[in-house]
Structures are given as structure tokens and as C-alpha cells.
Design a protein that fits this description.
- The protein has 14 helices and twelve strands.
- It is an alpha/beta fold and 401 residues long.
- It has two domains: 250 residues, Aspartate Aminotransferase, domain 2, CATH 3.40.640.10; 135 residues, Aspartate Aminotransferase, domain 1.
- The strands form two sheets. The chain has a seven-stranded mixed β-sheet with strand order 1-7-6-5-4-2-3, with helices on both faces.
- Helix 5 links the parallel strand 2 and strand 3.
- The longest helix has 21 residues.
- It starts with 11 loop residues before the first helix and ends with a helix.
């Protein structure tokens, strides 16, 4: 659908509903159709050859591309301010497809010292198996980046806000130094979503999201997406997605993400409003030792967060004076907030990385917490319930039930 507005792009909310789709081209169907097919037919051999050779746009096989997937990619790319995107079967599939497309044996990648635990495993254990050196750097001080760069460095990768701590990194400052060294910057912006933060506007080159989280928002599917310039995304689709991971997002899942995307902006506004109220309560509670929430006035990097984010999102971490044992007891007293490992759902969820680690070590003895993640830390994903009910639940749990 094309609507002409002199000198003005359609707004974020409008594009989240209409971008890339005209109902009149699909028999008037207001909701986009779901193309449930694994393969696509051609009128003749020449037409098939033209699609395979990238001479014309078209669809060949569902593992590479599908019209429902294409609409999702175009829509999220528009919201993120990217030229193109590649959807994948999970956030980790998106990250892996990107890394395997852009990195080769002998290359180096700089990553922040704290990452989502599965990304930590990929960078700490997975990439080195294929001859790719991973250099961990504390990017909370951007100047640290310069000393870590070598002639073999190709990418700088970090999350902001960071999973699970909720800490914020300065995208613009890191990107400036990375670009001076000729490097590309990749930002995992899952905790914020494009409704609150668009890293490309602050100098990043590529953005990744777990679609599982806020962009879908309803906790009922897995998905991921990589976004950036068209040439790089073409490479990610042709290499990483097509045969290195084969991790395609199904047409049905694409449709469900498109449905969730339509309410992203209004959901993120409410997530942020609820979370700020909860963070302020926790910050004032005598049982709480520390709260990390980007828009909390007492948060040390609050100015950076407000510079690059339109809202604080729904994610925070906090610790109690009672430490690990107190955290486990408090979590067990919660009645409304669910003990669960995901985030970004309409339901509020809480998890304890240290407790999860203790259980995981029974299967993977080498498992360890990321830098800056203490055994006392709890990660809280604030949903869309009434804030007063969430606050009451946390208070009764903190006060001993």
C-alpha cells in the first residue's frame, strides 16, 4: 500500500499495520494471506531460471523465502529503519545465520563481556570451534574497544539493554570507535524493540531481534530476525539461512508475528509505564539492595538510556539484601507473576539466572554465569497486567507473604 504524504513518512504505528500490503491486491482480504506451501511453480523454465539467478524477484522454495515471510521482513525493516531483513526460526537462529554468513576461520569478533547465556555459549564455545576468535571487552567504557581491535577483527557485537542485567550501552559511542577501525557494529535490541530503540539511527550497521519476545509479544511462538543493508541481508539469506542453518520461520509463525506487530507500539508504552512504577517501588523497598532499570532516575546510565530509547521497556533486574536464599524464597511466594524463563510477554515473568545455572550444571558442568551476573540477581519481565496488582504481588512476596 502506497500513500503519498508530502515530505513525511507514514508514522510508526501506521506502518506496523499497513506497510508492504494492499488488501485490494489480495481479493480484498484485510488480513494478509498465509502462503502454506513448501515450493513454488513457474510458467516455464526460463522464469524459474530468472528467479534462481536473482534477475527478477520471486519465490522458489520455502526454506529460502516465502511471501508471508517477505511481508514480515519488509514491515520490521521499515520500523527499524533498515533496507532489508531476514527472518529465522528463533533469535539464536538469526544470530547464528548472521555470524556464519559474515565470519570465516581466522576472523575475530569483539563482543561485550555480558550477553544472553545462549549467545555466550555460541561466542564462547561455538564460534571458536570453527576457527573464529572471540574477544570479550567491557564496552560500558567504549574506549576499551580500540585496544582490542586487530587486523583480523570483523564485527563488534553487543546487546542493549543487556540480558539479563538490563544494563545499557552507548550505541553511538561504540559505533563511532568501531567505524574508525573499519568495523561493522551488530546490536541485539530485543529488550527494547524498534518501538523504543532503533540502533541504526545511532550508528549501528546491523540489528538482531528475538521475535519470540516483544515484537510478537504473546509468548506463543519462536522467531528471530536480522536487519540491515540489502547487500548484507542478501548474503545472510543465501548463505546463513539457505544452507548453513536452514532455520526458516514458518509461514504460520510469520503471520502470528505480523499480528503481534500491529500492537507493538501501544504494548511497549504500557510495558514501560508498568515497569517504571514497579522499578520505583522496588527501589524504595527496604528488602531490595539494587534495581537496574534504564529509566529509573537512580540508574547510573539513565542519561544514556534516555538518549537512545523512547521508553524504558519492561525489563529490569534486582537483588535483595537477603541474597540468593532470600531471592529463591521471595520468588516462591509470588502469586501473580509467573516463574518462567522467557520475556516480553503480556504476562509478567520472573527468573533467577543463578538458580537456573545450578540446575544446568547437572547436565552441563562447564556452564557459568556471565560477567556481571551475580548469584543474587533476578530478571523481571513486566507484562500488561494492572501495575497496582504487580506491585501488590511483589510487596507481599518481599514482605514474607
Amino acid at each position: 500500500m502506497t500513500i503519498h504524504r508530502p515530505n513525511r513518512q507514514l508514522g510508526f504505528q501506521t506502518r506496523s499495520i499497513h506497510q508492504g500490503y494492499d488488501p485490494l491486491l489480495e481479493r480484498g482480504s484485510v488480513s494478509p494471506p498465509i502462503y502454506m506451501t513448501s515450493t513454488f511453480a513457474f510458467p516455464n523454465v526460463a522464469a524459474a531460471d530468472a528467479v534462481v539467478a536473482d534477475e527478477v524477484e520471486g519465490f522458489l522454495y520455502g526454506r529460502e523465502h516465502n511471501p508471508t515471510q517477505a511481508l514480515l521482513e519488509q514491515r520490521v525493516a521499515s520500523l527499524e529503519g533498515a533496507e532489508a531483513g531476514v527472518a529465522a526460526a528463533s533469535g539464536m537462529a538469526a544470530i547464528s545465520s548472521l555470524f556464519f554468513s559474515l565470519l570465516s576461520p581466522g576472523d575475530e569478533i569483539i563482543v561485550h563481556e555480558t550477553l544472553y547465556n545462549n549467545t555466550t555459549a555460541l561466542t564462547g564455545e561455538g564460534l571458536p570451534r570453527f576457527g573464529i576468535k572471540v574477544v570479550k571487552v567491557d564496552l560500558s567504557e567504549p574506549a576499551n574497544l580500540t585496544a582490542a581491535v586487530t587486523q583480523k577483527t570483523r564485527l563488534v557485537y553487543f546487546e542493549t539493554p543487556i540480558n539479563p542485567t538490563g544494563e545499557v550501552l552507548d550505541i553511538a559511542a561504540i559505533a563511532t570507535l568501531a567505524h574508525q577501525a573499519g568495523l561493522r557494529v551488530v546490536v541485539d535490541s530485543t529488550f527494547a524493540s524498534p518501538a523504543l530503540q532503533r540502533p541504526l539511527e545511532h550508528g549501528a550497521d546491523i540489528v538482531v531481534h528475538s521475535l519470540t519476545k516483544y515484537i510478537n509479544g504473546h509468548g506463543d511462538l519462536l522467531g528471530g530476525i536480522v536487519l540491515g543493508d540489502a547487500e548484507t541481508m542478501h548474503k545472510v539469506r543465501g548463505l546463513g539461512l539457505r544452507y548453513l542453518t536452514g532455520a526458516t520461520l514458518s509461514p504460520m509463525a510469520c503471520f502470528l508475528v505480523l499480528r503481534g506487530l500491529k500492537t507493538l507500539k501501544v504494548r511497549m508504552r504500557q510495558h514501560s509505564e508498568n515497569a517504571l512504577a514497579v522499578a520505583q517501588m522496588l527501589d524504595a523497598h527496604p528488602a531490595v539492595r539494587i534495581v537496574r532499570y534504564p529509566f529509573l532516575e537512580s540508574y547510573p546510565r539513565n542519561a544514556i538510556a534516555r538518549k537512545q530509547m523512547a521508553g524504558g521497556s519492561g525489563m529490569m533486574s534486582f537483588e535483595l539484601h537477603a541474597g540468593y536464599d532470600g531471592a529463591m524464597a521471595m520468588m516462591d511466594r509470588l502469586k501473580l507473576i509467573a516463574r518462567a524463563v522467557s520475556l516480553g510477554d503480556v504476562e509478567s515473568l520472573i527468573m533467577h539466572p543463578g538458580g537456573l545455572l545450578q540446575a544446568r550444571r547437572k547436565v552441563y558442568p562447564e556452564a557459568k554465569l556471565g560477567t556481571g551476573v551475580t548469584m543474587d540477581l533476578m530478571r523481571l519481565s513486566i507484562g500488561l497486567e494492572d501495575a497496582e496488582d504487580l506491585i501488590d504481588d511483589l510487596k507481599q512476596a518481599l514482605d514474607g507473604g
